[in-house]
Design goal:
- There is one protein chain.
- By secondary structure, the protein is mostly helical.
- The chain has 4 helices and no strands.
- Helix 2 runs antiparallel to helix 3.
- The protein is globular.
- About 25% of the residues are buried.
């Protein structure tokens, strides 16, 4: 596996993979990739949002709200 820190555009690649995995229902794998992104870029709004969505789908509403609010605060115009 290639880590996000190894290539400048690897974060984008990891996020595209995470979104695809999430869309296929592979939530745990998507979460893992989001966490890799956040390890390199802790304020990555898309990774935070996708983790929040996964938390919501898993029934962890308080975690979901916190992650989605944090993602929204980093991208207030969207």
């Amino acid at each position: 596996m290639v880590r996000a820190s190894q290539h400048p555009n690897q974060i984008d690649v990891l996020m595209r993979q995470a979104i695809a995995l999430h869309q296929r229902g592979q939530i745990g794998d998507a979460e893992s990739l989001c966490r890799q992104v956040l390890a390199v870029e802790p304020d990555h709004p898309d990774a935070l949002y996708l983790l929040g969505l996964a938390a919501f789908q898993g029934g962890n509403l308080s975690q979901a709200v916190g992650l989605i609010r944090r993602a929204a605060s980093l991208r207030p115009r969207n």
